[in-house]
Design goal:
single chain; 109 residues; mainly alpha; elongated
């Protein structure tokens, strides 16, 4: 990664960044979608965790690569769950990549 202090910031007008995997570690999203959500769905539908994965992974994979894949409102309708609230339940797992805060501070100035 380039040292943020070596970037010529006055020459830059706009910075576009993806959060997941760029600013934040992907482990949170992987855990949420692949473990926690299937567990919540298992409890809701009286399934085992594995049965839930077997039932709902294909539903999720069918939207992979489509705009719906990234839309929490879509998944909220599909699963009839408050996805944003569920993400809050496991928000303590969110980890920022090293040097992100320094980079953002430099970019802000």
């Amino acid at each position: 990664m380039t040292n943020p202090s070596s970037i010529n910031w006055p020459e830059i007008d706009t910075i576009l960044l993806d959060m997941d995997g760029t600013l934040l570690d992907l482990n949170f999203d992987l855990h949420f979608w692949m473990e926690y959500l299937p567990l919540v769905l298992a409890n809701k539908h009286n399934l085992t965790h594995q049965e839930s994965k077997d039932k709902f992974y294909p539903v999720m994979r069918a939207e992979e690569g489509k705009l719906h894949w990234y839309c929490l409102d879509y998944w909220q309708k599909i699963f009839e769950l408050d996805i944003a609230k569920l993400k809050e339940d496991v928000a303590h797992l969110i980890q920022v990549h090293p040097f992100v805060l320094e980079f953002l501070e430099q970019a802000r100035q």
